[in-house]
Amino acid sequence: MVADRPWEGKVIQLFGTVLPGFRMWYSSYNKVWGLIQTLYAESQDGLHWSKPSLNNGGSNALFGGQNSGMVSVIHTPQELSKPFKLMVYRGGAFLGFWSTKGTDTSPYPENPLFYNGGDVAQFYWDPFTESYGGTAKELFSLNGVPRRAIRFIHSGNFINWANHPVVLSPDALDDQINAGYYTHFYGLSIFPMGEQYVGLLWVFRARDQAGLYGPVNVQLVSSHDGLNWYREEGNRPPLLDLGPPSSWDGGQIYTASQLVPVGNELWLYYSGCNLEHGSSLTATVCSIGLARASYHRLASLRGNGVVLTQSLDPAGIYLHLNYDASQGSIRVELLRDGAIISGYESQNCLPLVGDSQNQMVTWSGQRDLPEGPYQIKFYLENSAIYAFAVK
């Protein structure tokens, strides 16, 4: 999707949200008009988007076209009277709105609901804690140089927000990997998924100590509690990297606030800019694109070796595996108190070969799991495990 309406200028960005059903709330910046707006688009297939008129001026702008951006949209259908909540950045703070349809908005009388001194924050509903969470950009110092980091914020009612300590900050390894740059964390999109949290970390590699100029791409992070985050090992590769220089997404990438499950895939909508952060806004053009991945296949444990889980006591009776053993095989055995459970030895496991997103594990024709607790031990031979589930 490109900026093709007069009020959009040349910059449309997913400092925004895409919800299942292909509904998009995004931001635009028209430098000539000096106008930042929150806009709405919708689609039947997720590929071809329309921009419906929402006001008398015929534009797709919310809030009557007032200045606002960095929109987070939360859908909580269990709250029948206020199934949609919006948080937008306006006038140096974040203002909250509730909505019945997502496009009609009513402000909370307590506005502004959140202020952090910065212009980047994202908000979401946490089904694990049945509360609201969020992340905000925070400044700290690394080796005497100011950097951007990620702070966690939390609310039980969407109105009153509490700050928590910084949960993600650049470290010396980031600067070592990206020699010649000063690493900043510009934003973090959090998406509760399975039994954990997936995070899309916006990594800004500044060429200058002031943190003004440089490229932005996206790395994958994960957490079991939303506070303690794990980053990828090795050289921390991007989940979504920049396109070629001067291409539409060759300078900066920012993601929607969440991934969208579509069939057996995860769809990630993102905005890309042709020039790097800090470039002339007269020459910068930003558009919105789509990246896809197989469901639950954003990262894997890959290679040759053994993976042993902690003790589990799941309610299901069948073990399903999302894996790729097209060049090898995987065997599985179960243990209790350090001892192999009879009948669930690795040599009795039917080897998993090929490539499957949902393969049931069997042992000598037996597929029912024993009563817990038990540990699961995976033997990998030139293969990869993406996820497992007990159903």
SSE order and pairing:
Layout: E1 11-19, E2 23-30, E3 35-43, E4 49-50, E5 69-75, E6 84-90, E7 93-99, E8 106-107, E9 121-126, E10 131-142, E11 145-155, E12 162-168, H1 172-177, E13 182-193, E14 196-206, E15 216-223, E16 229-231, E17 252-255, E18 260-262, E19 265-273, E20 286-294, E21 301-308, E22 319-336, E23 339-340, E24 352-360, E25 375-390
Antiparallel strand pairs: 1-2, 2-3, 3-4, 5-6, 6-7, 7-8, 9-10, 10-11, 11-12, 13-14, 14-15, 15-16, 17-19, 18-19, 19-20, 21-25, 22-23, 22-24, 22-25
Question: In brief, what are we looking at here?
Answer:
The chain has one helix at residues 172-177; strands spanning 11-19, 23-30, 35-43, 49-50, 69-75, 84-90, 93-99, 106-107, 121-126, 131-142, 145-155, 162-168, 182-193, 196-206, 216-223, 229-231, 252-255, 260-262, 265-273, 286-294, 301-308, 319-336, 339-340, 352-360, 375-390. With 391 residues, the chain is an all-beta fold.
Descriptive tags:
391 residues; mainly beta; Tachylectin-2, Chain A; Jelly Rolls; 2 domains; five-stranded antiparallel beta sheet; four-stranded antiparallel beta sheet; 1 helix; 2% helix; globular
Write structural notes for this entry.
This protein has two domains: 6-294, Tachylectin-2, Chain A; 301-390, Jelly Rolls (Sandwich). Helices cover 2% and strands 51% of the residues. The chain is built from one helix and 25 strands. The strands form six sheets. Strands 21, 22, 23, 24 and 25 form a five-stranded antiparallel β-sheet that branches. Strands 1-2-3-4 form a four-stranded antiparallel β-sheet, with no helix packed on it. The chain has a four-stranded antiparallel β-sheet with strand order 5-6-7-8, with no helix packed on it. β15 (216-223) and β16 (229-231) form a beta hairpin. The relative contact order is 0.10.
